[in-house]
Amino acid sequence: MTTTFSYNTLYQFTFSVFKKIGCSDEHATIASKALLSADLRGIESHGIARLSGYVRLWETGRVNANPDIKIIHETPSTAVIDGDKGLGLVVAHYSMQATIDKAKNVGTGWTSVKNSNHFGIAGCHAMQALEHDMIGIAMTNASALVAPTFSIERMLGTNPIAVAIPAKSQPAFVADFATTTAANGKLEVLQRKNEDMPLGWAQTKDGKNTTNANVIKNGGALLPLGSDREHASHKGYALGSIVDIFSAVLSGASYGPWAPPFPAYIPMPQNMPGEGLGHFFGAMRVDAFRPKEDFFQHIDNWIERFRSAKTVEGQERVLIPGDPEREAEAKHKEHGIPLLAKVTEDLSQLAEKLNVPQL
Amino acid sequence: MTTTFSYNTLYQFTFSVFKKIGCSDEHATIASKALLSADLRGIESHGIARLSGYVRLWETGRVNANPDIKIIHETPSTAVIDGDKGLGLVVAHYSMQATIDKAKNVGTGWTSVKNSNHFGIAGCHAMQALEHDMIGIAMTNASALVAPTFSIERMLGTNPIAVAIPAKSQPAFVADFATTTAANGKLEVLQRKNEDMPLGWAQTKDGKNTTNANVIKNGGALLPLGSDREHASHKGYALGSIVDIFSAVLSGASYGPWAPPFPAYIPMPQNMPGEGLGHFFGAMRVDAFRPKEDFFQHIDNWIERFRSAKTVEGQERVLIPGDPEREAEAKHKEHGIPLLAKVTEDLSQLAEKLNVPQL
């Protein structure tokens, strides 16, 4: 059961919600665009379905709608930014802008951010770099749901990495992925349908492999990319750890099992070693490495060659990272964005609570 | 069947071989240390077992023993380096040094390298940054053995990523991994023993899953980290692609299926779009982000917390990336390095051919 809405309708609604909790026009615009970029790109778990979750974080005082986002330490190519408990959607935008400014000056920029909140999809922030002919990088830590290899404890978030690489005749290369085998959103879909999941996505609280998609609610954990030791889960564990350290240990945010949870009803961890969630951003000017025209000629060639790679029988084509999301965006812009009944009901209650016009 | 040699014995032998092909004392020293760091750290597939392979590349003119390694393009935080067909072991060392120098000046350094050859283990170069209280990053492309998700063509190398993060009371965090489920060296071990491999490591030339470890010799391909689409092989494919683009498209090296092969008997690809193999290096001063003492306090805390995470029953401990290699190094320094008979025979022939003292 879905209802389809135009992007503009969802945008007006989202904007009015962010305004209502006290965001400035500028912040409400930035937050709405970032949040809805997930729905446009077909990553509905991270889009407007989370709007009421962000509002609940504001209600409990964990989100500050009027943050004073500022650089607290810097060198010519680096900065640490204090997000002042702002919406991650907004903090990430300004942080990526500061990262891009560094790259304009000295070739690359690298920014680690503390005292922030969930920032939506990583890809949206990495893609800010593209219009400047820069490679953009974005990552964030998140509340702990993932067990390291050989462990039964939830120590890491799904800690995504996004890398956006500009091209010219081809669309940009945009990789954006959780460092786990499956994102938690995929388990939630199966939970709603009461269906099993493949082996290798999650483990029970005792560390046993399972097909029960409800296992996370019962003390289980998601598995790092690779699933088990024989299939190199230690590599996914290392990747998730690198994201955690770059995002939170470099910045002074809270890391590992102490990362603050997204659901406002879950109490904050005890003895947090830092402030809020952490992010890490990078921007590299392509002409800091070689003349732009040379770079674009070869990245186009790279993409064309990979796109035309021979397929396994039964598969139509080899995808370039970002292809499915770009195609979803084109479709959703033309035909609107479908929302599940569960989501529209939640948004209807939100509208009532905040006294903003219904969707 | 193995024979054990002291590090010094292997070092003297390796040094004499590199000298004999025309390396300077300085280059022979650097190359020997880099090559043997693999044997010390227990990654024997990348160590002295490859020495005769490097010599064959020199014999065919693909390796220049006296390279003029130079920066051909730069900004305050970036450089592109032309390796002049030098040994990757040597080119990587100087490139990482240049990367570190950039970081001293502006907080971080980022170097893309073309016209190089295989550089041994990535971790060894990333670790150069540690003594400067910097995070080190190293990656390289390699000859194509890996099929993208949905493809039967070999388009990418095993394209490793290494990230070394300094700590104080704890040993450094050192992740160093191929972006495939299994490194090719693991398949070679099984081939020698005539044993099967687990499903999910490689596919046949038609793209079928298989346990036949000889499949690579018969037109098959290694699988990206994640193994299959259901277990997120598109993420491993994206990671391998990012390594390829950062190492070769940014620098002007040859990329994707055109990356030059390591075995000298395999002809070079036709219509190569760049020069030689490519590498990518990064260095970030920890105090470019926060005061050193704060960083070290929290990275030590991070490592201690993860090391003490609860284990799955039957597992003794949770590992920190770099633990197994550091323990191998301590063991090998004390008790010597065991070499397979096949390797010592190969080195004996090499000594004879080059007229250097036998091992």
Which SSEs are present, and which pair or pack?
The structure is a homodimer of 359-residue chains.
Chain A: E1 2-5, H1 7-20, H2 25-40, H3 51-59, E2 70-74, E3 78-82, H4 88-106, E4 108-116, H5 122-126, E5 134-140, E6 161-165, E7 173-177, H6 184-193, E8 202-203, E9 221-222, H7 233-249, E10 277-285, H8 292-307, H9 323-335, E11 337-340, H10 341-354
Parallel strand pairs in A: 3-4
Antiparallel strand pairs in A: 1-11, 2-3, 4-10, 5-6, 5-10, 6-7, 8-9
Helix pairs in contact in A: 1-2, 2-4
By CATH reckoning, the class of the largest domain in chain A would read Alpha Beta
CATH architecture assignment name of the largest domain in chain A:
2-Layer Sandwich
Task: Write out the strand line-up for the largest beta sheet of chain A, numbering strands in chain order.
Answer: 2-3-4-10-5-6-7
Q: Might you state the CATH topology name of the largest domain in chain A?
A: Ribosomal Protein S8, Chain: A, domain 1
Distance between the termini of chain A: 17 Å
Radius of gyration over C-alpha positions of chain A, nearest whole angstrom: 20 Å
Largest interface: A-B, 83 and 83 residues
Order of helices and strands of chain A: EHHHEEHEHEEEHEEHEHHEH
**What is the CATH homology-level superfamily of the largest domain in chain A?**
Malate/L-lactate/L-sulpholactate dehydrogenase, NADPH binding domain
Explain how this protein is built.
Two copies of one chain form a homodimer. Chain A is of the alpha+beta class and 359 residues long. Chain A has two domains: 280 residues, Malate/L-lactate/L-sulpholactate dehydrogenase, NADPH binding domain (Ribosomal Protein S8, Chain: A, domain 1); 35 residues, Wheat Germ Agglutinin (Isolectin 2), domain 1, CATH 3.30.60. Helices cover 37% and strands 16% of the residues of chain A. The first copy, chain A, contains ten helices and eleven strands. In chain A, the strands form three sheets. A seven-stranded mixed β-sheet of chain A has the order 2-3-4-10-5-6-7. Chain A has a two-stranded antiparallel ribbon with strand order 1-11. In chain A, strands 8-9 form a two-stranded antiparallel ribbon. The first copy, chain A, is globular and about 50 Å long. The two termini of chain A are 17 Å apart. At the A-B interface, strand 4, strand 7, helix 7 and helix 8 of A face strand 4, strand 7, helix 7 and helix 8 of B.
